[in-house]
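Note to self: keep these together.
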Amino acid sequence: MAEAAAEADRRSHAILESTTDGVYEVDRSWRIVYMNGRARGLMAGSSDLTGQRLWEAFPDAMGTVLWDRLHIAMRDRHPDEFEAYFAPLGVWLFLRVFPSSAGLAIYFQDISKRLLAERALERAVEQANQILESIGDAFYAIDRDWRITYVNKRAQEMFERPRADLVGSCLLDLFPEVAGNTVIRTFEAAMADQQPREFEALSGIFQRWTMFNVYPQAGGGLSIYFRDVSAHRAAEAALRASEHRYRTLLEALPQMVWTCRADGSCDFLSQQWLSYTGQRAEEARDFGWSESVHPDDRQRLLTIWIQAVEARTIFDTEARIRSAAGSYHWFKQRALPITDPETGEERWFGTSTDITDIFEARDAMQAAKEEAEEVGLRFRTLADSIPQLAWMARPDGRIFWYNQRWYDYTGVVEGADAASGPLWDGILPADHAERVTASLQRSLRTGKPWEDTFPMAGRDGAFRWFLSRALPVHDSDGAVVLWFGTNTDVTDRLEAEDALRRAKEEAERAALSKSKFLASASHDLRQPMQSLFLFSGALHGHVQGEKGMKALRLLESGLDALKGLLDSLLDVSRLDAGVVKPTLEDFPVALLLDHIAAGYAPVARGKGLDWTMEGCPLNIRSDRVLLGRMIRNLVENAIRYTEQGSIAITCAVVGGRMRITVADTGIGISGEQLPRIFEEFHQVGNPERDRSQGLGLGLAIVQRIGQLLDHPVTVRSTPGVGSVFAIEVPLGEIPKPGDLASAGHAPMAPGGGEERLAMVIDDDAIVLLGLQAILREWGYEVLIAGSGEQAVDKLRSVSRKPDIIIADYRLREGKVGTDAILGIRNLFDAEIPAIIVTGETGPECQRDAVRHGFGLMHKPVTPRQLAGAMERSLQPAE
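Structure:
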């Protein structure tokens, strides 16, 4: 037994000698009683200080943190770990202090150069502290209900629970696995017969042989003292404890630990080795460990081993060792020989430390250095070749580098400190210097990119304008490490932009003047044209013979073309001039689409096309007149360019907006034509400019109204398949039940052909006579008036209610036709059908007509259009 204990001590001594920690022990009088080789090397230059008092050997350490912490540990007999500056050696040490039977055991490391391994070593030291600390007596008390009433500090450590978790808790609740075992049964007997007990047993809680002294308490319960086993187990227990303690210490170290004979065969490899290599213990023993060494490193490793064995020097080298996953890591191999004094047998105790990160970091640093040099060369070449003036500044704004173009432009001598003193002194004009400097300093403070435009003087003294920018460059922590700036010559661009701006403003003024002129001339141009249409219509009853009728038809065809051109030109000009002001309101989209269907469904079906329109039971927010114009233009185009198939109007909610689509199966539009279809006078498939196919202004008007209302218009089309135009309209308030009713039709007109009375109101005598002539040709009785008051007077005089009222919108003295119509309706207390025929195209008259349910026609109106409108107005309501 003594030999085994001695062997354990020798092995412990060898392990402590091979570890990288310095270890020494002092007795209670501070005399050094043990130092390992590492401690001798670090503390005494390889001298042995054993026998000397610690503070006599190192008087400069007295009164330091080290002095205070060691005295506290010695006094309180508590382990401690801390960092301290060891003034005698001028190094920072990480120390772990454990009370020992002699005094204190102190483990320490020089952490000045090992900060990277600090956390791993702290964990290893912490585990070692728990294993190696001295085992003292422990005491706790329980009451008759097995509740713990008191526990001392050593018992807390043994139970591995804080006092708060132990006191007041039932012992059997805390450790249910010990219920009914030998220890508990003995406790129960002592509690029952109130006799003390002394016995040793394998504790179910601590899993070690323990001596228990149990004393019954007067009021019930037990006082329990427990400690290590008695003297007859002392040697065996010491051996087991030593073996377990140091093996645990080895397993806690970050290094792989091993012991070898002089021939290189290993008799022990730590669990770290087995876990890393994936070898089993029996595979790795003897020379099996060499299978994990890289083939290229084995011979070199063996050669250095033999040299170390022969010279009895420390074995120290690097080699690659294969992991269980098959990858190789570099390890520092270090071992020293220990000779058994009794047998003379030589053993080598060694460690293998993973240094792959160091190798990789070294290689990476070298590669980074080479790359940085190459990048620097490329950067300088690139920086000197770019057209901008370039520079770099430190975080505080001090410029430390310029490219060659800077020196070429400014004439500053290369190497001169152009950043000293005021910013770019002599280069930046005085009237810009303060503002530019302030804006740059603001960016330097906030870390935000800098941009400014200002003139800079060249070497010839002439100033040119530069767009100057600077961007911050950050490190991995987000801190600004430098600023990279450029100055780009924008003199030519600024001059060109200024010239372009002046030209654009001039063009916009000219276009605006043109559009305003056309918009204001709208009424004056429409009035004489209206007279031409009416009188040409009136001629039908007076022109005899085919030749005369043909000439009349040609005249009407020319007037139709002129009307279409005038309508579209004036609409475009008014939109461009900005005189059209939308009135936004919430209304049911179904009402608008029903009106459009009533007008165009018959036209489509008359051409042999299918007409479909989905119901849309939602409100939208728009200008109902302008939106109606957009949809009508799209429908007219669809009917014009579709020879067979169908026209479909649909609506759906997409992305919170109403999408109204007009789809046809017409000729379609090619990809190269799509970008141009919204241009004025551009038509697809009409290179001859056939006016029967329109003027090419319909889509231009759609786009302009869409921009005015913020209703985006999109199109997709396939030649030969058809086109789909879509208008995106905002949704309005949720419709009320009454909102979805169909728009009211014109009121009932008297039946019978030749007995109808028409009341015509217009302040233009020629237009008035023209309307009178054409209506009489159609068989109407006609009353004409220049104002609403005249119309009421004439109707009173004949005592007859008119069947239809046709009125101009803008009358004399600021009166309007809608008021005249309402006056006549009030006179007869009847909803008399009415049509507004006006040369105005503004939204005011359109809104008035829609609000009162009047028909609306814009001059010039052809006889066919007028006849159709009157027919619809006089149709009885369904």
